[in-house]
Amino acid sequence: MERGKMAEAESLETAAEHERILREIESTDTACIGPTLRSVYDGEEHGRFMEKLETRIRNHDREIEKMCNFHYQGFVDSITELLKVRGEAQKLKNQVTDTNRKLQHEGKELVIAMEELKQCRLQQRNISATVDKLMLCLPVLEMYSKLRDQMKTKRHYPALKTLEHLEHTYLPQVSHYRFCKVMVDNIPKLREEIKDVSMSDLKDFLESIRKHSDKIGETAMKQAQQQRNLDNIVLQQPRIGSKRKSKKDAYIIFDTEIESTSPKSEQDSGILDVEDEEDDEEVPGAQDLVDFSPVYRCLHIYSVLGARETFENYYRKQRRKQARLVLQPPSNMHETLDGYRKYFNQIVGFFVVEDHILHTTQGLVNRAYIDELWEMALSKTIAALRTHSSYCSDPNLVLDLKNLIVLFADTLQVYGFPVNQLFDMLLEIRDQYSETLLKKWAGIFRNILDSDNYSPIPVTSEEMYKKVVGQFPFQDIELEKQPFPKKFPFSEFVPKVYNQIKEFIYACLKFSEDLHLSSTEIDDMIRKSTNLLLTRTLSNSLQNVIKRKNIGLTELVQIIINTTHLEKSCKYLEEFITNITNVLPETVHTTKLYGTTTFKDARHAAEEEIYTNLNQKIDQFLQLADYDWMTGDLGNKASDYLVDLIAFLRSTFAVFTHLPGKVAQTACMSACKHLATSLMQLLLEAEVRQLTLGALQQFNLDVRECEQFARSGPVPGFQEDTLQLAFIDLRQLLDLFIQWDWSTYLADYGQPNCKYLRVNPVTALTLLEKMKDTSRKNNMFAQFRKNERDKQKLIDTVAKQLRGLISSHHS
C-alpha cells in the first residue's frame, strides 16, 4: 500500500515536472528550447512526456478550431471584400502603369538634359578646381623656367636668388604635386651646379689674372711714372721726399653689377681688351683692365650657400700658389732689363688685384693676409734681386735696374705697401754699382794711360789753348805770355783723367736720384765712391804704368809732372762735388777727397822707379867695365864705359828740368851714391884677387871723372861739394893707396879730424891683401928686387897693424 502511495506520489511529481516543461516550451523562444528538451531526455519518463505533449497539442488544436469557427464569417466577408479590392487594384495598377509609361516617355529628354547639365556642372567644378590649382602652380613653373633661363645665360647669382624664392615661397604651396617633388629633389643638384659653374668661372678668372699680371702691373707702373713726371713738372726739381699720390686717387673704385643681364659681362674672363689704345691717350686705370665680377659672383653665391669660409680658403690658397709662381724669377733675368721689368710687372699686377679685392669685398682677404703675402714677396724679391744683380757687370744696366726698382717701389707705396726694405736694398746695389763703375773706369784709365804719348801737350793757337784750359783747371801766367806754338807741362792724360773723374762723379749722382736721400747722404756717397776711384782704381792704374818693364825715364818724369798737376786739381774736384750736392765742405762729417794722397803716392812710386831705373842703367854701364887689374901701365884718361855713363847721366838729368827740385836732386844724389857704391864693390869684389898700382891709377882716373861730373852741378840746387860727398869714401881710399900715406892713416886713426876718416880698416886691409906679391909678376920692377922686398915688408907691417886696429875695434 505504501508502495502504491509512493508510486502515486512519484507520478504526481513527474506530471508536475512535465507540466512545467510544457509551459516553458510554450513560453520560451525557439532558440532557447534546447536545455528544456535536454531535461526531458535526461529523465526516464520521456514516453509519458510525449503522451503529455500529444495531449497538449490536441487541446491547442481544439482551441484553434473553436476560434476559427467563431471568426469564420468575418473571414469570409473579408475574403469577399478582398476580391472586390483586387479588381480595383488591378485597374489602379493599369492606370499607374500607363501613367508611368507616359511619364517615362515625357521625362526621357528631361533626364537626358539633366544628365548633360550634371556633366556640365561636374566639368565646371573640375575646371574651376583645376584653374585654382594651376594658379598656384603657374608661379612655381614660371620661377623654375626663369631659373633655367638664368642658368642657361650663366647668371648664377640671380639664379640662386630665384632658387631660394622657389624653395621657400612657392614650392611649399604646391608640395603635394608630383612635379614639385621632382623640383624639390633637383634643388640640391642645382645648387651644386651653380657652385661648380661659379667656381669654374673663378678658376678661369684666376688663370687669366695669372697670365695677365704683367699687363696689369705694367699699367700700374705707367700710372706711377706719369704721376711722378707730373710731380716733377709741378715742382721743377727732383722729387726727393715729394708728397705721395694718395691711395684714394691711385685707383677708381668701380661697382660691378652682380645681377647684370649682359651675357658678355657674365662670361668675361677678367681682362678687358686695351691693346688697340693709342700710346698718346691717357693710360687706363689698372683696375679698369680687370672685370672682377666672377670673384664677386662666386663670393656672393658661396655666402648665400653658407660656404663662404670654404670659398675664402680656396681663393687665398690659390692666390698664395700664384704668388709663389710670380715671385719665382726666370734664370736669365739678369741678362736684360726687360727680364727685370716683366718680373716687377707681374708682382705689381698681383698686388694691385689683391689690394682692389681687399677694398671692394668684405673679408674675402684681410689686411693681415695681404701683409703676410707682401712680407713673403718682399723677402723673395729682395733675395732674387741680390742674386741676379750680382751678375750685372754693366753699370748702365745696374743704373736702369735701380730706376726700375724705384718705380716698382713707388708704385707699390701708392697702394699702401711698405717699401723701406727695397730702398735699403738699393743702398746695397749702390755699392755694387760703385764696384761696376770702378771696373769700367779701370778700363777707361788703362786705355788713357796706354794711349798717352807722355810728352807735353803742344798747342799752336789760342783756340787749342782755351780748349785744353777748358778741360783742365790750369793757370800759368808765364805760359800764357809765351808765343805760339807752346807746350803745356803735362801730357794729354791729365785733362782726360780729370774729365773722367768728373764723369764718374756724375754717374754716382745719377744713382742717388729718387732714393729719398738727403743732400748730405748723397754728398757722402759721392765722396766715398770718388775716394775709391782715386785710391784704388786710378792708383792701381798709375802703379801698373809705373811698374811696367819697358817704361823709360822720360815717361816716369812726365808721370811725376802729371800727378803733380792732378794733385793741384783736387781742390777743384772738391768744389765740383760741392756745387752738385749743395753741401759745403765745412759741414760736419763731410768726407774729404783723398786725391792728394793718391797722386802723392803715385808720384813717390814714380820717383822710386826713377831711382831704380837710373841705378839699373848705371849697373848696365858698369857691366861694360873691363879693368886689367894686373896692368903696369899708367893711363891718362878715364875708361870709355865711364865716359859713356857720365854722358848718359848728363842727358838724363837735363830732362829733369820740369821736375820738382827735390826730386831731381834726390835722383842725382841717389845715382851718384849708387855709382860710388858700385865702383867700391867692383874694386873689392872677391873675383879680383890681385891688383897693381897701375890698375889703381886707372881706377882713380875714373873716380876723378865722376867727381868732375859731381862738381859740374848736373842738377841745380846742390851746395858746393854736397854731390862730391857721394864719392868721398872712394877718394880717401884711393888717395891712401896711391900716396901710400899709411903713417898718417895709422897715426890719425880714430881722430875726428883725421885725413882718412872715411877709410875703414877692413876695406883697407882687403885692398892691401890684393896688392901683395904683384911685383913678382911685373917685369918693370925686376931690377929693384931689394926695394920691392922692402915694400913687401912694409905691406906686411901695415897689414899687421891694420889687423891690430880691426881686432881692437871689435874688442
UniProtKB/TrEMBL annotation:
<dbReference type="InterPro" id="IPR007225">
    <property type="entry name" value="EXOC6/Sec15"/>
</dbReference>
<dbReference type="GO" id="GO:0000145">
    <property type="term" value="C:exocyst"/>
</dbReference>
<comment type="similarity">
    <text>Belongs to the SEC15 family.</text>
</comment>
<feature type="domain" description="Exocyst complex subunit EXOC6/Sec15 C-terminal">
    <location>
        <begin position="421"/>
        <end position="770"/>
    </location>
</feature>
<keyword id="KW-0268">Exocytosis</keyword>
<dbReference type="GO" id="GO:0006886">
    <property type="term" value="P:intracellular protein transport"/>
</dbReference>
<dbReference type="GO" id="GO:0006887">
    <property type="term" value="P:exocytosis"/>
</dbReference>
<feature type="coiled-coil region">
    <location>
        <begin position="82"/>
        <end position="109"/>
    </location>
</feature>
<dbReference type="Pfam" id="PF20651">
    <property type="entry name" value="EXOC6_Sec15_N"/>
</dbReference>
<keyword id="KW-0813">Transport</keyword>
<dbReference type="Pfam" id="PF04091">
    <property type="entry name" value="Sec15_C"/>
</dbReference>
<feature type="region of interest" description="Disordered">
    <location>
        <begin position="260"/>
        <end position="280"/>
    </location>
</feature>
<comment type="function">
    <text>Component of the exocyst complex involved in the docking of exocytic vesicles with fusion sites on the plasma membrane.</text>
</comment>
<keyword id="KW-0175">Coiled coil</keyword>
<dbReference type="InterPro" id="IPR048359">
    <property type="entry name" value="EXOC6_Sec15_N"/>
</dbReference>
<dbReference type="InterPro" id="IPR046361">
    <property type="entry name" value="EXOC6/Sec15_C"/>
</dbReference>
<dbReference type="InterPro" id="IPR042044">
    <property type="entry name" value="EXOC6PINT-1/Sec15/Tip20_C_dom2"/>
</dbReference>
<protein>
    <recommendedName>
        <fullName>Exocyst complex component</fullName>
    </recommendedName>
</protein>
<dbReference type="GO" id="GO:0090522">
    <property type="term" value="P:vesicle tethering involved in exocytosis"/>
</dbReference>
<dbReference type="InterPro" id="IPR042045">
    <property type="entry name" value="EXOC6/Sec15_C_dom1"/>
</dbReference>
<dbReference type="GO" id="GO:0006893">
    <property type="term" value="P:Golgi to plasma membrane transport"/>
</dbReference>
<dbReference type="GO" id="GO:0005886">
    <property type="term" value="C:plasma membrane"/>
</dbReference>
<feature type="domain" description="Exocyst complex component EXOC6/Sec15 N-terminal">
    <location>
        <begin position="52"/>
        <end position="221"/>
    </location>
</feature>
